[in-house]
């Protein structure tokens, strides 16, 4: 007599990033859930700064400086992203309020949104007093681009 052995079906591995069962990504919820990571990053940054002060080795100092620079850049990028998200949410709230009052909703084009962001950046630079240096850098950059675009002129 043969005994039939039944094997369980093989488990299918799934990647939660691309699977619908994991839900959809909501940045606000993600920020709230993992807000403790900001504290961890801040502590790590302080530890790296202390190590940098204690370090005598030049190579180690360079590595720590690069790491510190990268961490500050990531913080700045996160701050910008957060500010951008807050601005878009505020605009959406404003449009909902206007819609409730009976007005027709107005949706900004990407170019219009960029113009608003640029205007806000100029306001912030003006407050901090760095507007003039920013504009000078921008002028120099544009001048060098213009020089490159000009056709090559021979001296006769």
From TrEMBL:
Summary of the function given for this chain in its UniProt record: Component of the 90S pre-ribosome involved in the maturation of rRNAs. Required for early cleavages of the pre-RNAs in the 40S ribosomal subunit maturation pathway.
Pfam families attached to this UniProt entry: RRP36
Keyword list, A-Z: Coiled coil, Nucleus, Ribonucleoprotein, Ribosome biogenesis, rRNA processing
Record protein name field: rRNA biogenesis protein RRP36
Chief localisation class: nucleus
PANTHER family in the record: RIBOSOMAL RNA PROCESSING PROTEIN 36 HOMOLOG
Chain spans, region Disordered: 133-156
Record bears the keyword Lipid metabolism: no
Tree of life domain: Eukaryota
Subunit and interaction comment: Associates with 90S and pre-40S pre-ribosomal particles.
UniProt GO cellular component terms: 90S preribosome; nucleolus
Sequence ranges of Basic residues compositional bias: 136-156
BP-aspect Gene Ontology terms: maturation of SSU-rRNA from tricistronic rRNA transcript (SSU-rRNA, 5.8S rRNA, LSU-rRNA)
Stretches assigned to coiled coil: 41-84
Record localization: Nucleus, Nucleolus
Membership in a protein family: Belongs to the RRP36 family.
């Amino acid at each position: 007599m043969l005994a039939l052995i039944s094997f369980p079906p093989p488990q299918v591995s799934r990647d939660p990033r691309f699977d619908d069962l994991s839900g959809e990504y909501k940045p606000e919820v993600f920020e709230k859930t993992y807000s403790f990571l900001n504290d961890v990053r801040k502590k790590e940054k302080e530890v790296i700064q202390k190590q940098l002060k204690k370090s005598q080795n030049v190579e180690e100092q360079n590595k720590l400086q690069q790491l510190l620079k990268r961490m500050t850049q990531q913080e700045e990028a996160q701050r910008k992203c957060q500010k951008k998200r807050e601005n878009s949410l505020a605009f959406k709230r404003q449009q909902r309020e206007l819609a409730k009052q009976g007005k027709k909703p107005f949706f900004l084009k990407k170019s219009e949104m960029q113009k608003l962001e640029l205007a806000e950046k100029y306001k912030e630079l003006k407050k901090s007093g760095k507007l003039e240096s920013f504009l000078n850098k921008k002028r120099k950059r544009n001048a060098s681009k213009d020089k490159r675009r000009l056709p090559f002129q021979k001296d006769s």
